[in-house]
Amino acid sequence: MIPAWLRRTLAWAFWLGYFGFAVLVLVLRYSVLPNIESYRGDIERGISSAVGLNVTISRIDTDWHGLRPHLSLHGFKVHDAAARPVLTFDTVETDLGWSSLLRWRLHLHRLEVHAPELTIRRDKGGRIFIAGLQVNTEASGTDFSDWLLSQKNIAVRDATIRWEDEQRGAPPLELRQLNFVLTNNGSRHRFGLTASPPAELAARIDIRGDFRGRDIDRPELWKGEMYAELDYADLAVWRAWVDYPLDLPQGAGGMRLWLGFNDKKLRSLTADIALRDVKLRLARNLAMLELEHFNGRIAGRLPDAGFEVSTKRLTLATKDGIALSPTDFSLRWNPAQGKQSANGAATANGLDLDVLAKLAGYLPLDAGTRRMLEDHAPRGRVFDLRLGWKGDADILTAFSVNARFEALGRRALGYYPGFDGLYGRIDGTEKGGTVEVSGRNAIIELPTV
Fold first, then answer.
1. CA distance 172 to 194
2. DSSP 359
3. How many structural domains is the chain composed of?
4. Model confidence, pTM
5. Average pLDDT over residues 296-315
């Protein structure tokens, strides 16, 4: 039971805080805000100190949003070290946060910028300029970044961003109707961005993110997810501004991406892809792969060791008649760690070995794998594959396999027999199992007999 004296003390503290806050609101409402122009210099200095740049304001209008003071800052200008205005906003809307009194630092519940126009330029030497102001890429700039991430809500409405890349010699790229929203809640930071590039380049861009972290100087402690959606893009035209990891002279379509980050690394990726009329070369010494269409979902995970990759309803068709029916496939591999041996697993709803053998000529395979495929010439179809193993490729300590096959075949080579037209099922482990085989006009070659 709470003592009577403590209850009285808490009651007095509550009413004192309540009336103190009420008096503060009344002073702001009837004394400070109506005479806000006389405090304009103090506000300019407070914002300048917070963002680390000299800021001037032409006019301030005031209002209230609920119990929060609302300021409309007109003629908002950011100046460089030579006192030249390098960035101008017609109007900046702000709702002041009461936590500024506790932090003794400017804190905003909401910051909203309307219709800014901004030019970002990279010169031939690689230096970046924003609105004519050079960005020091070697400086951390953490004071401003930390302040930005401590504000509750930040929004940019109907912006126009122009990117000029003199180093690449690319034409200017302009993004219109750009809207950006950043919501910060302690260590959680969520953002959304939409923008419209020129119609001949792509449809509207939609990017969202959800990250957790506190110290901008410790990116290895941050983690989060990003999502990007693009209904249409001419991938070949974007080469003027983007470097692809492969040769992609032609292609168009849409995609959705889910990305997972942790410890400064990309840890997971899922991509829904719908591309058409694609030309790509996966390595310099390979032929150009020409695709009529390429559709499906591709996913991958990169933990600290090993990897996982999978596809869902992946289909493609090449110009020269190679067609892959909808394929669900997964592969997982973990390297040896301590006393645990290397292990892996693979599944597939269906694999057409003839199609895969033809596509191998376009894939960056090592010489040994390519030679093995050419020598053995596998063919046929495998369904409902379930495969698991432990150990290295040379020495397997355990394995399991379950699959059925149709028209299975391979070329005879050395002591290894060849066969064609085999149908059946296999279910077994390193300890034993069963194989059911039937033949329809089957052929078996025994080179040593």
1. 19
2. H
3. 1
4. 0.78
5. 92
